[in-house]
Amino acid sequence: MTYAQRAEQFRALHRTGEPLLLPNAWDHASAAALVHGGFPAIGTTSLGVAAAAGKADATGDTREETLRLAHGLARLPALVTVDIEGGFSDRPGEVAALAAELAGAGVVGVNIEDGRPDGTLTDTALQCELIRAVKERAPDLFVNARTDTYWLRAGGAGETERRAADYQLAGADGLFVPGLQDEKVIAGLVEGALGIPLNILYAPGALTYPRLAELGVRRVSSGSLLFRAALHGAVEAARSIAAGGAVPKDLPSYADAQALSAAYGEAE
Question: Which of 63, 131, 130 is nearest to 102 (CA)?
Answer without folding.
Answer: 63
